[in-house]
Amino acid sequence: MRQFLEAIKNIWKIEELRNRVGLTLGLLLVYRVGAQVVLPGIDSVQLSELANRTDGGGLLGILNAFTGGAFANASVFALGIMPYISASIVVQLMGIAVPYLQKLQKEGESGRRTINQITRWLTIAICVVQAPAYLYGLGALGVPDSAFLLGKGPTFIITSVIILVTGTIFAMWLGEKITDKGIGNGISLLITVGIIATMPLSFVQEFVSRVTENNGGLIMILVELVIWIIVNGLCVLLVLAVRQIPVQYARRTAAGGYAKNQGSARQYIPLKLNASGVMPIIFAQAIMFAPAYLGQAIGNNAVGQWMQASFSDIFGLWYNVLFGILIIVFTYFYTAITVPTNKMADDLKRNGGFIPGIRPGGETADFLDRVMSHITFPGSLFLAAIAVLPAVAYQLLGLQQGWALFYGGTSLLIMVGVAIDTIQQVNAYLLNRHYDGLMTTGNKRKG
Description:
Blueprint: H1 2-13, H2 15-34, H3 48-54, H4 58-66, H5 82-97, H6 99-105, H7 109-140, H8 154-181, H9 186-212, H10 217-240, E1 242-250, E2 264-272, H11 279-287, H12 290-298, H13 302-311, H14 317-338, H15 341-350, E3 353-354, H16 362-397, H17 401-404, H18 409-446
Helix pairs in contact: 2-8, 2-9, 5-6, 5-7, 6-7, 7-8, 8-9, 9-10, 9-18, 10-16, 10-18, 11-14, 12-13, 14-16, 15-16
């Protein structure tokens, strides 16, 4: 605790870091305030049924968590930052098959700017599709017609679509400003803050349920918190775990060649145990709504009813069995397309590096691919276990559904990953400042 307080003091002493942290907190506050601003023409008092629908988990609960409650509030930020995330995923996947995007990826900074611009335009296109669907879907989600003070005419729909699209673009701008001028990845921080915003209410509901209903009392609350801390620790291990592959680089001579008899410098290639992050969970979550819809399409026969009952409950057995299998499959798929072992091998060969005992070139690529396959298997199992843990906690501990969602899954992994990334950036600033201070002191003493 003392070391933590000392780090906070050091952050305050460094003017640049202090300004970055202040800007980040200010922009996050703007986003949170905007999440409470209801769309013009909607009576916020009559949105209680929509809030109830989003409290029980499922796709609506996840969307509401990612938007920090803006989805249930029918806010100007109701679509949140998720259209931008969807556009980024599409562009990333298209970069594997589209030669134009592959060319842009190799052009450095200019190519990156062009790809970002393509992502922004695709975000707008996705918003234009999602915004009307959201507005027309409010009625099906329990919002009465009387809540629309101006009716559902073309004027209301067009203006609301413009506002929702603008809200997402503004949120995207906030995220980019945080990344450029603040601390951490702005888009990830916006999602994380939205998730954290729903945590206090979920915990209060769990606390009230345990204490007032004589359902375990404070002892059970303490047990839950201990288990939750352990799960957080496991998520940290999953995010940070790497397999280090030793690499040696031949030392260069003054003439630019390689000196075979002058020794070599050894380094490591860090291959992450979970190189795909939370993307397999997101992909699997999107597909998991297909079986229930397929059951509805089949009809009211025995198979259709079983599929609807089994795959509509996110805490059910068959739902989580299929969910876990899909996560394992998508972990292998996403790792294969995002970890370029062939490019890594070519870069090593070009820079005079080699893995001891492995020939440069094709054999190195095969070796790296084989190692990635071996470490991806336990990584995928670990990721699937974390993803289905909310259902296990709900069934075994009898948690409230909202609080159970924080025992694993996408929400917890995102929070842990973003927290680690932000802390690492802050530490980099602190270490940088410490290094500069030592050099300045040394120069002064020398003079």
